[in-house]
Amino acid sequence: MTTNQGDVTQPTVISFYEHPNGGKDFRGRTLSSILQWHDRDLEYSHNHIQILFPLPEGSPFNWHAPVIDKATFDAFRSRPELRERLRESFVRILSFYGFKLEERDGDLKVLPAPNFSTASKLWVRPVDHNHLRITRIIRSLRVLGLEGQAEAFFIALEQLRQERKGRISSKSLMYWTRAATRPLYIAPEDHRDEGKGADFLYEFEKKRQERKGGEDVGAKSIGGEQKARTSNGVDVDDKESVSHGVRTKAMDHGNDRGAEEMKGSGEPVGAKRKIDEVETLEGKG
User: How far is 165 from 114, CA to CA, in rounded Å?
Assistant: First the structure.
């Protein structure tokens, strides 16, 4: 998806972040306007998260969702001002979840904020659509060059799960781990790790490994997350997905293509209806 800025056509995500008061998404909203929303607007709108935190993967539910292409990837990786505005989006969404970002001498930490007790009631529970958003946020930050922030967020989420036993499901943690640790060319919802995904991401990871003097990217373990395999190459943790047949990508958590992007209109819906829609989407990968 591209946007015209004068005589120049550029990817929508670049325009949106390059011109925070002028670059607009498909509904005419700017970055500055969205970051000023009340928390309830962030909760009940379902089509802003894709422009704030885009992914390299397309959406079968929201055709307006921008995709990170090579031009967008290169722009964010080379332009500090774009990453700084992405960091501002991250800080705003952290506040929505009840966290804050602390940066001291290059050390990044995501910590509970004063509003955590209230904000966490919205999403710290076994099943919630915000878990899907979090997967997206972690992956988007990593792809667009804020890998330190993504790692700090993931560490905070791991600690939260340890402190709130039973409140965060193992499946949510699994997808957050995938988003935080897999090579960038492998999406969290992919149940096989031998594919290359987007070529530019594969090439990026390949060059990064070469600089480190590491092994071939395709053979590299995915952080501490490499799973045992069944005979057909599927993760053991994914047996449920295979045996049920219909439980596939979009709602086997992964990114938020299912729950978040199905609401193309962005109209507020009640919590009960949102949960019903999430359950209905299972099997529509």
Answer: 21
DSSP lists the bridge partners of residue 4 as 9
How far is residue 49's CA from residue 41's CA, in Å, rounded to a whole number?
A: 11
Q: H-helix or E-strand containing 206?
A: helix 199-212
> By C-alpha distance, which of 179, 178, 157 is closest to 168?
157
Q: Environment class of residue 267 by beta-carbon count within 10 Å: exposed (0-12), middle (13-18) or buried (19+)?
A: exposed
- Label residues 119-155 b or e (16+ Cβ within 10 Å = b): bbebbbeeebbbbbbbbbbbbbbbbbbbeebbbbbbe
Residue 45 one-letter amino acid: S
For residue 86, what are its two tokens? 């992405």
pLDDT tens digits, residue range 147-183?
999 999 999 999 999 999 999 999 999 999 999 999 9
Backbone torsions φ then ψ of 110, nearest 5 degrees: -105, 120
Whether 251 contacts 261, CB under 8 Å: no
What does the pLDDT look like over 190-241, one tens digit per residue?
877 666 678 999 999 999 999 988 655 554 433 444 433 222 333 333 333 3
Spacing of C-alpha 125 from chain mean position: 19
H or E segment and range at residue 239: helix 239-244
* Tokens standing for residue 168: 């965060």
d(CA 272, CA 260): 15
Q: Tell me the whole-structure pTM to 2 decimals.
A: 0.78
Residues 3, 30 contacting (CB under 8 angstroms): no
Residue 53's CB is within 10 A of a number of other CB atoms, namely 25
Half-sphere exposure of 16 (CA within 13 A, CB side): 30
